[in-house]
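Lecture 7 notes: from sequence to structure.
We start with the chain below.
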Amino acid sequence: MHGRERIVPINVAEDSSNVEKSYYIFVLSGEESNDFFRVPEETFLIGSSFGCDFHLSDRKISPFSIEAKPCYSGNELKKLKITVLKGRIHIAGKAVKRCELKVGDFFRIKNTVFKLESVYPFEIDYRNLVVEKLKKGFILGKDDILHFFKKFFDISRKYHRPLSIILFKVDYFKLLKQTFSEKAIEQIYREARMILKKYIRKSDFIGRVEEDKYLIVLPETHHNGAVTVAKRLSSGIKNAVFRVGNESHTFTISQGVVSLDCHHYKTPIDFLNAGEKFLDKAAKKGKGIIEFCREINA
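Predicted structure tokens for the same chain:
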């Protein structure tokens, strides 16, 4: 599964897409490292004043202003002509007043680094959703996880992108509740979260949908990749030793995996219900079972 470590979970170079790219300037470091600006067709200004099209309010940056002229050939950006009106711009360690940037080039103003990139529109949607999730925490509540799940489903349907989900529950959860105190269960959950973090990307979404049931949303993940993640989760939980007081315990999880590779679900509810059916099937079979669709494009 490609792109497992990126905040935007995609490497389209390994995948085909009929969607046209757009061109953006991204801030890679500095006080506003998640900011970005779409390159228009006409000349625009980048700077630290409010009169600029791309305004950077990083207080550590001295006042600056840059005129940027895009040169397109059809829908393709060939180069970006830069003229420094105020301040300094550095490219490859050298201060310049005029230069031409190509897609993939970096430039620096003080300690803030920019990059000119070509991206697909759904990559911007992904970036916005990931940034929104990071503000909410690692494990989301029911309303939040279902909100993001529906957003990703809509993006995947609109742009024909891969999407997978994993539903899992702790085996014999009722017995666990009868055996341990609430404080002990919370301690077990804290240790389990550390295990989950080993296998969940920043661009993946996990949340509790019921007391004993969790949903993992895997954007830009095909069926085989999702099954691989489920197997790693299963092994990670099964082999972990959870300590409660002076005692050591082990647990297993049942999982249901479903992907848009396997069926063209028309609604997020249909997609989620398919995952529920696989999870129920796994839970009935016993401990640590993973159930998933055996045919692609079924």
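Points to note: Residues 20-119 form a domain with the Tumour Suppressor Smad4 fold (CATH 2.60.200.20). Residues 256 and 279 are 4 Å apart (CA to CA).
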